[in-house]
Amino acid sequence: MDQRNFTRVAEFVLLGLSNSWELQYFFFVFFNIMYIAIVLGNLLIVLTVISERALHTPMYIMLSNLSILDVLLATYATPKMIHDFLYESKAISFEGCMAQIFLLHVFAGGEMVLLVAMAYDRYVAICKPLHYATIMSLCKCTGMVVGSWVIGVMHSLSQLAFTLNLPFCGPNTVDNYYCDLTLVIKLACMDSYVPEVLMLLDSGLMGVTSFLLLLISYTVILVTVRHRSSVGLAKAHSTLTAHITVVTLFFGPCIFIYAWPFGKFPVDKVLSVFSTVFTPILNPIIYTLRNKEVKSAMNKMKMRYARSCCLSGRLSQD
Fold first, then answer.
1. Domain edges within the chain
2. What confidence category does residue 2 fall into, taking pLDDT thresholds of 50, 70 and 90?
3. Cα–Cα distance between 173 and 131 in angstroms, integer?
4. pLDDT tens per residue across span 269-293
5. For the whole model, what pTM was predicted?
6. How do beta strands 91-93 and 11-14 pair?
7. Under CATH, domain 7-298 is a member of which superfamily?
8. Which end of the chain has fewer CB atoms surrounding its CB within 10 Å, N or C?
């Protein structure tokens, strides 16, 4: 179709998670609680890492950036979804839709790369402990964190570049609670086979490659620790099992949705919720709140806050 001879749609209509008002009211309360927990839990981790000098190490710097990405990943669409539960019309402007697509791929792409960097950090710490300080310097850690954001932005721009040029001239109904690229592409007034292949090569390849790198890293770590003490093996196995669980929950839905874009499955909405809501709330629990050093730092921060409150109270009484 000649792109000069069509009128671009002004908005898209999101169908949301359910047509039942009873379920929508329940979802409104449930996802409000989940979103607040995600924001508070992850920001608490960021504040703890910033305030405690003992946590100014590559591992915790990466964990705090993971928390920032989780807050952003939950924020790009969840507040809009919560708002829409109270209204029958769930429209989003064309520009808003493209912004959601852009932000999703920036944050999700950045988190994929950051998780690989974190796995590499654990590999160096466990397999090459004597060289850890040399290999994983703060400068290199900073480069990895910045690199994850740069790759996320580049990945997202590559997706948006061909999406913006598609002719959207008629259908505008998206069967999800946000603008899912796999669904938006199908609304173009043209054969969507080529755009879907481009998306498969971009998002699908990035997701599968990152997931395989993570599995290889964790496997090498377990094999290395296996030849050491049984106590070290048990500790590493416990930690890595939790990490692999979260990684699978994050990458599984992404790979399923973006590596098989040619079909629409009813479970896609559930997988989308897992990626944008449940994974961001699991990361603080699995990666950080189970960590003794972080819990100790949080207790110190709480004690400092309690002392400052007591001191302020005494000064106000005097």
1. 7-298
2. very low
3. 55
4. 777 887 788 888 887 777 666 677 7
5. 0.86
6. antiparallel
7. Rhodopsin 7-helix transmembrane proteins (1.20.1070.10)
8. C
